[in-house]
């Protein structure tokens, strides 16, 4: 990791912690605020530690873009949780052979950048 990349990642990490420190829930309820602050902190710790050993510059760049997108979406909508995608599972093709693989490839390509770190349920 280059020095500028390291600086960018650390500044994003600190930015997330500053946002969590000043976060107010949209509902205004104190317990919701505390829950959402804890979620932001836990999610940041988990994802940054999960990606700590990355060395590929392209992967690091994608993670930085994902982090920036999640920050902007969270601040804009005042919701710290990732926004759901509304494409139904296997909704575009039949579930046999090549079409199934094509469907899975389309779903992977259609996944927004801010959900790259989340596994589908």
UniProtKB/TrEMBL annotation:
GO cellular component: mitochondrion
Domain of life: Eukaryota
Residues covered by the Complex 1 LYR protein domain: 7-71
InterPro entries on file: Complex1_LYR_dom, Complex1_LYR_LYRM1, LYRM1
Family, similarity comment: Belongs to the complex I LYR family.
Protein name as it appears in the record: LYR motif containing 1
Lineage, broadest ranks: Eukaryota, Metazoa, Chordata, Craniata, Vertebrata
């Amino acid at each position: 990791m280059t020095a500028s990349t390291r600086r960018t990642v650390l500044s994003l990490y600190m930015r997330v912690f500053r946002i969590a420190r000043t976060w107010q829930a949209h509902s205004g309820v104190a317990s919701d605020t505390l829950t959402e602050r804890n979620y932001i902190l836990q999610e940041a710790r988990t994802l940054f530690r999960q990606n700590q050993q990355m060395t590929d510059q392209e992967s690091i760049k994608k993670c930085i873009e994902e982090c920036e997108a999640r920050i902007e979406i969270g601040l804009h909508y005042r919701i710290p949780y990732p926004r759901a995608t509304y494409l139904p599972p296997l909704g575009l093709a039949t579930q046999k052979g090549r079409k199934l693989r094509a469907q899975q490839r389309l779903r992977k390509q259609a996944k927004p950048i801010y959900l790259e770190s989340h596994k589908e349920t």
